[in-house]
Amino acid sequence: MKIAHINYLPYDNVIGVEKKLSQQAKSARESNINMDFIVINSKVQKIEKNLQLLKMVVPSNFLLKTLYKKLFKFKVIENSVNLNNYDYIILRYPDMDFSSIYFMSKYGNKIVTEHHTNELGELETSKKNLTRILKIYIEKKFAPNFISKSKGIIGVTDEIRQVELTKTNDKIPSTVISNGINVNEINFTSFKFFDDKELTLIFVASSFAPWHGLDRLLEGLKHYDGQLPIRLNLIGSLPLIYHDQIKSISNKTVSIEILGKKYGEELDHYFRNSNIAISSLALHRNGMEEACVLKTREYIARGIPFIYAYCDSDLSGDESFALLFDSNDLHIDIKKLITFSKKVSSIKNISSQERSFAKKYLDWEIKIKQMNSFVKTLDV
Hints:
By secondary structure, the protein is an alpha/beta fold. It has helices at residues 14-30, 62-71, 73-80, 100-107, 119-125, 130-148, 158-165, 214-223, 240-247, 264-272, 294-302, 334-345, 350-362, 364-378; strands spanning 3-8, 35-41, 46-48, 51-55, 88-92, 111-115, 152-155, 174-176, 199-207, 230-237, 254-260, 276-278, 290-291, 306-308, 311-312, 322-324. The strands form three sheets. Strands 3-4-2-1-5-6-7-8 form an eight-stranded mixed sheet, sandwiched between helices.
């Protein structure tokens, strides 16, 4: 059985997704799974083993090219990849357009749709303009038919899977396969055991966004009335709004370092010298309860205890190395972090337990095997 995993990215910078897909492709090869990972894009043509970056086949006329990218993307997919070479196609779900019905009438018997978000919900909560209103109309009109003709559905969370199933009256086979990581490419840094002298927190983001919930943590630091010194290291791009909130914290037992982006050994240094890492604390602001946050997976692979505030697809909520908060706009109780840090520091080999958990449940090798097994169940 030969499978294609297709990603349609006409506008995005493919460099950002190439690393992830390269890890997935490598995991498939090492597991002897016959799966090609394909990115249809507008700039790069490169084929390396089972990773294919393919320039989209579109008309040369600028106006027609633009129309094809936006309104006939499924025709572009068909023109750019020989779909007849594959028994099954896992298609990262693009928004619907006017070519979707023809595409599914021709290839629906081999299409498995993969969903990373509630597409319609995301459109409806975005700022409205004429283009957005048209997209919402097209999605509502064509998505139920498209989903109904597919062979199966993959959601990165059960919440997303359930949303997709409501679009069809047919009993479409479905499963949850969350995002993974390449554990071997993440350094096992462990963490600094709590010494009763200072609590050091690390919060990492490429660019801090509202759904990260940094404001909840800062408000907690503002309310903290204990005597134990607290240090917070912020790593990543920090919008000005947070600078103002940090300045409002007058508590002398709290120190906050705005460190910018860090990589490699320098980043490892901060992890090794921190007691607790902070993951996403306000996903409810995106209308989500469940997610599979990459930051959480990196923390687990590194072997550092962390806090989070959402339902994670791969966590039960009572793991010894993590502390779960409710996802709301209330401030984080810093005293709970101190108690948690004392607790995890008393558990023997806690970091090794985290690393083992990552290899057993979060590694891309596991996720790709799950994809392959799900598709095999459809081939009956």
